[in-house]
Specification:
Number of strands: 6
Mean pLDDT: 76
Strand order of the largest sheet: 5-4-3-6
Low-confidence stretches: 4-15
Distance between the termini: 34 Å
Strand content: 25-35%
Oligomer: single chain
Shape: elongated
């Protein structure tokens, strides 16, 4: 850990959410799965995107020994 670094994520002076949470977001052409600022190519089916995001979140939680999240956040911009 760097000296003077508090571990929180900052962007333009505002705190942003943890990049470890998979989200389903609207993109041109369908629904994408986002992790932090990275997004997948769009899926045409919302249910398919949610299912894949849920599976990825479960795998990430298992690797980090966290309790599983039961919901996948969906955001439309």
């Amino acid at each position: 850990m760097m000296s003077g670094y508090d571990g929180s994520l900052q962007r333009c002076g505002k705190r942003i959410r943890s990049p470890r949470i998979y989200r389903v977001v609207v993109k041109a052409g369908g629904w994408s799965i986002a992790l932090g600022e990275a997004c997948t190519f769009p899926f045409k089916d919302l249910d398919q995107a949610r299912r894949i995001a849920r599976n990825l979140q479960q795998q990430a939680d298992a690797l980090s020994n966290q309790t599983p999240r039961r919901t996948i956040r969906t955001r439309s911009d």
